Amino acid sequence: MKLYNPLLLAFLLPIFLFAEFPGKPGKWQGYDFYNFREGDASCRVVVPREVAEGKPWIWRARFWGHEPQTDRALLERGWHVVYCEVGNLFGNPKAVARWDAFYTYLVGKQGFSRKAVLEGMSRGGLIIFNWAASNPDKVHCIYADAPVCDIRSWPGGKGTGKGSPPTWERCKQAYGLTEEEAAKFKGNPIDNLAPLAKAGIPLLHVVGEADTVVPVSENTNIIEERYKKLGGKIQVIRKDGVGHHPHSLKDPKPIVDFILKAAGR
């Protein structure tokens, strides 16, 4: 009977277990980049040159490639950066289901870490919070940047913010809401923080205090107050005199340090 070298098997096992990503690789920020479809979604994965132990990853929501300094810093540390398109769904149940399917693909077929770091800018806040509320056991932490946390604030413009009437119509359609139902809607991130607090998920918000598009008083401030009352941990970095843009920080070190600590690295 033929015997097999156990060292060779150990080397080949990851190759057998985890498939290559579909399509030919391109380049993003100098790293191999794959753009493909998984189910009904357009998906993207950026692969680090040397994969860190356990295959850690950060999940970007919306505005792919915008202010990439945090993603780039994590790639340098061996993290994957991933994206799954949920545009014009505003974090609704269909968007959450689409992310569920992509999560299953990444963890089940590609061997990614069971817990992800979620990153959302502006309207990306809707999907990261709604997905985390449905999957609190699958999240290390949330980095939210000028995030939309209440659709009535944006795109609704029902408070002090500018709003966006055409986008508000699309948002209501995405949720199947009338104007009257939207006024009483309880499916916003501000309404569903208890599962996150119970799971001990730390939050980091980076906001511009002069934001007139996604007013801090109607979004992040409400999250901060309610999350603390629930016993959750939240840190808010406030940029004086800055509006909705630019997002992130020129030096992403505070963001990266928060993520690494939350992920136990």
Give me the secondary-structure topology.
Elements: H1 6-17, E1 26-28, E2 31-38, E3 41-47, E4 57-61, H2 69-76, E5 80-84, H3 93-109, E6 116-121, H4 124-134, E7 139-145, H5 165-175, H6 179-183, H7 194-199, E8 203-208, H8 220-229, E9 234-239, H9 253-262
Parallel strand pairs: 4-5, 4-6, 6-7, 7-8, 8-9
Antiparallel strand pairs: 1-2, 2-3, 3-5
Helix pairs in contact: 3-4
- Describe the sheet with the most strands: 9 strands, mixed
What is the CATH C-level name?
Alpha Beta
Give the class from helix and strand content and strand pairing: alpha/beta
- From the spread of the alpha carbons, the general shape counts as globular
| Helix and strand element order | HEEEEHEHEHEHHHEHEH
What percentage of residues falls in helices of 4 or more residues?
Answer: 25-40%
Task: Compute the number of helices.
Answer: 9
- Which spans of ≥5 residues are poorly predicted at pLDDT below 50? 1-17
CATH homologous superfamily name? Alpha/Beta hydrolase fold, catalytic domain
Query: Spatial order of the strands in the main sheet?
Result: 1-2-3-5-4-6-7-8-9
Q: How much is the average pLDDT? A: 92
CATH topology, what is it called? Rossmann fold
Number of individual domains: 1
> Gyration radius, to the nearest Å?
19 Å
**Total number of beta strands:** 9
Task: Put the structure in a nutshell.
With 265 residues, the protein is an alpha/beta fold.
What does this structure look like?
- With about 260 residues, the chain is α/β, with parallel strands linked by helices.
- The chain has one domain: 3-Layer(aba) Sandwich (Rossmann fold).
- The chain has helices at about 5-15, 70-75, 95-110, 125-135, 165-175, 180-185, 195-200, 220-230, 255-260, and strands spanning about 25-30, 30-40, 40-45, 55-60, 80-85, 115-120, 140-145, 205-210, 235-240.
- Strands 1-2-3-5-4-6-7-8-9 form a nine-stranded mixed beta sheet, with helices on both faces.
- Helix 3 (about 95-110) packs across helix 4.
- The longest helix has 17 residues, at about 95-110.
- The protein is globular, with a radius of gyration of 19 Å.
- Mean pLDDT is about 90; it is low at about 1-15.
